[in-house]
């Protein structure tokens, strides 16, 4: 039986990656609710955010906060560009076609990032000092705290946006009934672009948070994007609470699975649980049957 | 508001006028092209030919521009935003005005709506999807009115409602012109609609077959039989 401190250790690292999965999953949901499109470029926003931050810190020598904000803005711009330049001009409104356009956009983004930043692994410095903190025998870095804390702030900001602001409510209205939303004068096209921009920003936030712990390269977002997608499905695709629960759940399962059984089976355990949940509840843990958010 | 419309798959050479401060009803069976016509008026669809005139000038293009110009539709089947609360639904009706910073005026109008539809008051915090059909219809109308329309387009407001609830909806419709609002009422419930209208059109197979005063439609035995008779009752 593993010790309590070991379990705590696994939980901390599980919550850290889980928080990042949750951010990525929220990005998927934002786009899906506004457009019904599954955006396979979501993971690339993560890489892009990390890479922009790296350049601004290392090459431009900017302080942390401006670099962070610019990295988020850059990825948000890339997100908006995916919608405006790749999806909107498409003649087809078929969801399948649009989804494949996002696959193409993902390949383009990855190619562009490889060209600009190269193939080698880069190191993004942690946000603050690297001295590990110890609590009840478990060690963690301040970056773990940053990841969880900033993710919580982002979730709070999003729920205020959707619950309190006119534009946020309009995005929910559009998710529920796009035609009625258009009849109210809601600019559904503009909100589709906004959803991609927000998804880009959320992806980038995940990137700047986690890459100091993992590593940074042009394709780091590929696997993270897939895990975030799995988290979104686990929680109920399109569901806000589900994305957070799905992300944290997936992160914890991976970490506990790796620690208690074997790290070789880390991904297998997580995906077996995902499959089991979907067999029993196809709409995901928190999803409703129609997939309303 | 005047409308002329030419060759298209659903409508042919349709011309109708909605006057301010009046209820105009557009009657016809299912598939006659009524909803297509409303969507053209709302700017969701572009007419193949012909035009929509608003106060004598071509109406602005696009759904948002039409709402801004005062042409607002309450669509068939209520189409309320089910997961949003009743209050949020009403706010979304005033979306463009809220975006323009008219918070105080919108709050005032929300009070007016609750006075007009008292049943909505105790439901303000509830999800719209949980309301009864009649309450959803009230909400759909109130939501459209929150945009302060000069012309309100009502698509089948009595559809699927109990006779009592339908009568209540018609009563509200009858009162709308008092504020200067022009109403285009699309209905299958012809008698209910004619009773609150000052002008009526009958649309069949994409063509206007009759236009005139409601009394003339309701009393003409041929028209009665041809258009109103078999069409009373539930939607097929």
Describe the 3D structure.
Chain A is mainly alpha-helical. Chain A has helices at 4-35, 42-59, 64-87, 95-117, 142-164, 166-176, 178-183, 188-210, 220-235, 240-260, 266-280; strands at 133-135, 138-140. Chain A has one domain: ABC transporter involved in vitamin B12 uptake, BtuC (Orthogonal Bundle), CATH 1.10.3470. Chain A is 72% helix and 2% strand. A two-stranded antiparallel sheet of chain A has the order 1-2. In chain A, a hairpin with a 2-residue loop joins strand 1 and strand 2. The longest helix of chain A has 32 residues, at 4-35. The N and C termini of chain A lie far apart (40 Å). The model of chain A has no long low-confidence stretch (mean pLDDT 92). Chain B is of the alpha/beta class and 236 residues long. Chain B has a single domain, classed as Rossmann fold. In chain B, 37% of the residues lie in helices and 20% in strands. Chain B has a six-stranded mixed β-sheet with strand order 6-7-8-3-9-10, with helices on both faces. A four-stranded antiparallel β-sheet of chain B has the order 2-1-4-5, with no helix packed on it. The relative contact order of chain B is 0.19.
Task: Summarize the helices and strands and which ones pair or pack.
The complex is a heterodimer of chains A (293) and B (236).
Chain A: H1 4-35, H2 42-59, H3 64-87, H4 95-117, E1 133-135, E2 138-140, H5 142-164, H6 166-176, H7 178-183, H8 188-210, H9 220-235, H10 240-260, H11 266-280
Antiparallel strand pairs in A: 1-2
Chain B: E1 2-5, E2 14-17, E3 23-27, H1 34-41, E4 50-54, E5 57-58, H2 63-69, E6 71-74, H3 86-93, H4 95-99, H5 103-116, H6 133-145, E7 151-155, H7 163-175, E8 182-187, H8 190-195, E9 199-204, E10 207-212, H9 214-219, H10 221-228
Parallel strand pairs in B: 3-8, 3-9, 6-7, 7-8
Antiparallel strand pairs in B: 1-2, 1-4, 4-5, 9-10
Helix pairs in contact in B: 3-6
């Amino acid at each position: 039986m593993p010790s309590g401190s070991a379990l705590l250790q696994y939980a901390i690292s599980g919550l850290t990656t889980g928080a990042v999965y949750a951010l990525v999953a929220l990005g998927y949901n934002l786009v899906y609710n506004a457009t019904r499109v599954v955006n396979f470029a979501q993971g690339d926003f993560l890489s892009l955010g990390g890479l922009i931050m790296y350049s601004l810190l290392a090459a431009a020598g900017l302080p942390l906060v401006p670099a962070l904000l610019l990295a988020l803005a850059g990825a948000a711009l890339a997100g908006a560009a995916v919608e405006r330049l790749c999806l909107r001009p498409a003649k087809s409104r078929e969801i399948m076609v649009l989804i494949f356009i996002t696959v193409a956009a993902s390949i383009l983004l990855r190619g562009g990032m490889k060209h600009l930043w190269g193939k080698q692994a880069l190191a993004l410095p942690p946000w603050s000092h690297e001295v590990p903190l110890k609590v009840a025998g478990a060690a963690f870095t301040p970056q773990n705290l940053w990841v969880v804390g900033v993710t919580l702030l982002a979730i709070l900001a999003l729920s205020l946006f959707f619950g309190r602001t006119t534009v946020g409510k309009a995005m929910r209205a559009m998710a529920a009934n796009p035609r009625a939303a258009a009849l109210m004068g809601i600019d559904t096209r503009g909100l589709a672009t906004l959803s991609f921009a927000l998804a880009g920003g959320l992806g980038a936030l995940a990137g700047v948070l986690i890459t100091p712990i993992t590593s940074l390269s042009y394709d780091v977002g590929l696997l993270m994007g897939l895990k975030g997608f799995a988290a979104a499905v686990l929680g109920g695709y399109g569901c806000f609470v589900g994305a957070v629960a799905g992300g944290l759940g997936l992160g914890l399962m991976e970490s506990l699975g790796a620690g208690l059984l074997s790290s070789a089976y880390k991904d297998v355990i997580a995906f077996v649980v995902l499959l089991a949940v979907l067999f029993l509840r196809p709409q995901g843990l928190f999803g409703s049957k129609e997939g309303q958010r | 508001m005047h409308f002329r419309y030419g060759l298209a798959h659903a409508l042919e050479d349709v011309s109708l006028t909605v006057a301010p401060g009046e209820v105009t009803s557009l009657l016809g069976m299912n598939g006659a092209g009524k909803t297509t016509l409303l969507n053209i008026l709302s700017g969701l669809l572009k007419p193949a030919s012909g035009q929509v005139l608003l106060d004598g000038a071509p109406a602005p293009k696009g759904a948002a521009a039409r709402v801004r110009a005062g042409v607002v539709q309450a669509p068939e089947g209520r189409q309320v935003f089910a997961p949003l609360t009743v209050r949020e639904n009403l706010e979304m009706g005033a979306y463009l005005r809220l975006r323009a910073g008219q918070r105080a005026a919108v709050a005032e109008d929300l009070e007016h709506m609750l006075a007009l539809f008292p049943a909505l008051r105790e439901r303000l915090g509830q999800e719209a999807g949980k309301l009864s059909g009649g309450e959803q219809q009230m909400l759909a109308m109130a939501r459209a009115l929150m945009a302060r329309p000069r012309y309100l387009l009502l698509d089948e407001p009595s559809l699927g409602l109990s006779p009592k609830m339908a009568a209540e909806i018609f009563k509200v419709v009858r009162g709308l012109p008092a504020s200067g609002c022009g109403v285009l009422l699309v209905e299958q419930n012809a008698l209910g609609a004619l009773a609150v209208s000052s002008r009526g059109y009958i649309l069949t197979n994409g063509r206007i077959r009759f236009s005139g005063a409601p009394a003339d439609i309701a009393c003409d035995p041929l028209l009665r039989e041809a258009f109103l008779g078999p069409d009373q009752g539930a939607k097929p």
